[in-house]
User: What shape does this take?
Amino acid sequence: MPASLRRGLVIGNWKMHGSVSETEALLRQIMALCETATAEVAVCPSFVHVPLALRLTAASAIAVGGQNCSEHDSGACTGEVAAAMLAELGCDRVILGHSERRRQQGESSALVAAKCRAAHRAGLKAVVCVGETLEQRESGQAQTVVAEQLQALVEELRPEDSIAYEPVWAIGTGHTASPRQAQEMHTFIRGCLGAARGDAAQRLRLLYGGSVKAANAAELFAQQDIDGGLVGGAALDAHEFAAIVALAG
Ligand code: PGA
Assistant: This one.
């Protein structure tokens, strides 16, 4: 499938930022600025702000997702949120396996795959993050690491899911992967998906994440296998985020 047939997608990962009033103000600005966007747009606020975001976006094309979900459907899991709870509210997707969770919460690739299954049981699309650390890249292990992360969940993936390649060394650091480095890994990822899943690999959208901003998005999104971005810091600035969305259109 030519890249042009995969619709551009930009997801704002708001992480653990924002009060209620800040979240509302940010989202109102984003909605106004992205009203005529041709790319698909989603925002992922913290769990407690999800109902607010869904209420505000009810009449807009902006989708709302979670930043994580439990691998279990329900039960004695204090502090966890089930995929079905997000789906019942109106979320359509969930970010899984973000490197901050892999590192801070010790999430393994097997656990991320289990969460992916749980998301699908609830009817959510998965946005699965993969990526290597700086040490892994410098020691020539980047592709091996990403292949292992993919291997664990490749059988679970559906064409409407997306994969976000987020080199850990580029997240929140201001050091973006070069368009060539990013495209090289995206080609590799699509190749891995293709080997395991055939044609579905062409439909899955591959997002780049890691210090995406308006100033570097055009070059990144111009790459054949980069279908959009998973945006952290720049997603907290409505004008910056809207400029990125416009470049993915
Ligand atoms: P960043 O974060 O854009 O601030 O680097 C991206 C992410 O963590 O998803």
Summary: The CA atoms of residues 135 and 141 lie 8 Å apart.
